[in-house]
Amino acid sequence: MQWKVLGLVAVALSISGATAMADESNLRIAIHGGAGTILRENLTPELEQAYRAKLEEALRAGYTVLTSGGTAVEAVQEAIVTMEDSPLFNAGKGAVFTHHKTNEMDASIMEGATLNAGAAAGVSTVRNPIRLAAAVMTQSSHVMLSGKGAEQFAASVGLQIVDPAYFWTERRWQQLLEVQKNDPQASVLSEHESDRAAVVPGGTRWPDDNKFGTVGAVALDKHGNLAAGTSTGGMTNKKYGRIGDSPVIGAGTYADNSAGAISATGHGEFFIRAAVAHDICARTLYRGVSLQKAADEVIMDKLVKMGGEGGIVGLDPAGNVVFSFNSTGMYRGFIDSTGKAHTAIFR
Amino acid sequence: MQWKVLGLVAVALSISGATAMADESNLRIAIHGGAGTILRENLTPELEQAYRAKLEEALRAGYTVLTSGGTAVEAVQEAIVTMEDSPLFNAGKGAVFTHHKTNEMDASIMEGATLNAGAAAGVSTVRNPIRLAAAVMTQSSHVMLSGKGAEQFAASVGLQIVDPAYFWTERRWQQLLEVQKNDPQASVLSEHESDRAAVVPGGTRWPDDNKFGTVGAVALDKHGNLAAGTSTGGMTNKKYGRIGDSPVIGAGTYADNSAGAISATGHGEFFIRAAVAHDICARTLYRGVSLQKAADEVIMDKLVKMGGEGGIVGLDPAGNVVFSFNSTGMYRGFIDSTGKAHTAIFR
């Protein structure tokens, strides 16, 4: 599940010209835009192109931070903000609706050098939840804030607050109506229900990312520091203030310079129970296996046995990009050592 | 930090009489009632006796479940409910106040055989948050619920709902006023502030458990299954919907039959960043060290270097009881293989 990453070939100068820094080949960013039952027959060529273009835009946004000398934490934020501001992904602007017809978003971020972390759960008025997670990390003494309190904190540190209506999109609204029509009590979609929800009235066919359409990024900066971040709208029709794995440090997000950086996407309940992001790092740290092998053990074996669908994107301290997912597809991409962007969706 | 646990001496019959089951020597329960700057000079003999008596009562409540053939999950609940119903501990009845003069409680529980887990964050009307965590685990498709939604779920499954005033206690109220008088903006107490807060006007001196007074339990049942649970009122004067480690699976609570069961108490932000409960299990699982050694590595070394104060109670699959804490004290206790209860507070 891993693209062959080019070695530390010193071709960065030939691509970026005279302003390139000598160590650009060590910079790396990788992202995901959610995993799920993403089938080629459910994705028109136009929509596939739109996803790929937005993934590349997100990669470029993060990579530009890195080549400008910015930190991995900053790069992760910029990549995720690009996806949060797009209606294509289940995060920020494109967040799914809850059972109560609201949008409640979660996000987290972690810095591998310090194990500093920040997270927010259940916010409805913060345009970019990943920026809130970062502000919690750097401007509060806490790691995890929730609900109205988290929104008050966001306002207090000057983050952009929007009317909740900003998050209304026709696609997500129709998905909610479709799910509630079929099962008004459902707060988790069965496979069958999510298949029905994938066809929006009017004929537009969308891939099944109303369950697992979380976005995430991992980055390695010029200081050799790793970071990981994750942002999501959660599950369509969720209720009871459900919190998934995305804002849970150790489940949806973990970064430790001595092991790796991981951002997950999938059926959050399973990812919390398996402590996916931390478990992958722990296997690497304590057993000496590669981050790719550790990720495959957790995603392709442990989670499969538990019945948990989804995947991760990761980076090890040497800049090796890791993808692992047990679903039929995962929106994903990375920038290699030459500065070239790669994107993919299907297995 | 570990009491010498008696081996599997078959003396259970001589203690419990004819109704005792043959495998009682394999049953085990251990608890904590919070860690912190608990100094002998801050605890009157009467108060020390009250804490020890309540710890033993909690141990007996859990152990009775085990000797009656109940599960580790049930035993953990009963032990924790006993502490939640006491004003002595920062959980349930004795929960500390938030900045906004409310009580917002968190709890989680996990079953080692299945990795099933449940958690609730920020509830103000549920008498026993640990029962809510258990209900989330067994009666919902989710792992983590929060705020008003979690309270609605609690009511929907018939848990006892109380007026928020139920959680008002003079001691916690005075602690809040003291903290806010000294620093109305503080949402985390410094060591200095917490020392001041430890003296309640009127002369009653309480130990410093307004920061770390979480309660927790771990148990091993007749099926050889482990469970862990944790419940807390969080930090005095907390704001912004702060969530600590107690409801975070992997941080405050983790149980895996192949590794151990852990419940943590301490400065939650550090426990989340270090993924304390899961990290202890992972070190045992992947490096083969004992749960005690793994716990000491995390609590006495890793956390100390990070600046994180607190401790854990744990049980390994063979029933060995583990305590590890880097604070001056931790309310704690366990029942050994002969059915005898042991309690302690200071180092």
Task: Explain the overall architecture.
The structure is a homodimer of 347-residue chains. Chain A is α+β, with helices and mostly antiparallel strands and 347 residues long. The first copy, chain A, has a single domain, classed as Glutamine Phosphoribosylpyrophosphate, subunit 1, domain 1. In chain A, the strands form 2 sheets. Chain A has an 8-stranded mixed β-sheet with strand order 4-3-2-6-5-1-11-12. In chain A, a hairpin with a 5-residue loop joins strand 2 and strand 3. The radius of gyration of chain A is 18 Å and the shape is globular. Chains A and B meet through strand 3, strand 4, helix 5, helix 8 and helix 9 of A and strand 3, strand 4, helix 5, helix 8 and helix 9 of B.
Highlighted features:
homodimer; 347 residues; alpha+beta; 4-stranded antiparallel β-sheet; Glutamine Phosphoribosylpyrophosphate, subunit 1, domain 1
The Cα radius of gyration of chain A reads 18 Å
Number of strands of chain A: 12
Within the largest sheet of chain A, what's the order of strands? 4-3-2-6-5-1-11-12
- Fill in the CATH topology of chain A: Glutamine Phosphoribosylpyrophosphate, subunit 1, domain 1
Q: Oligomerization state of this entry?
A: homodimer
What count of domains describes the coordinates of chain A?
1
Secondary structure: elements and pairs:
2 copies of one chain form a homodimer.
Chain A lengths: L11 H5 L11 E9 L8 H23 L4 H13 L20 E7 L5 E7 L5 H11 L4 E3 H10 L13 H13 L8 H7 L17 E6 L5 E7 L20 E4 L3 E7 L1 H6 L2 H12 L3 H16 L3 E6 L5 E5 L3 E7 L5 E6 L1
Parallel strand pairs in A: 3-4
Antiparallel strand pairs in A: 1-5, 1-11, 2-3, 2-6, 5-6, 7-8, 8-9, 9-10, 11-12
Helix pairs in contact in A: 2-3, 3-4, 6-7, 9-10
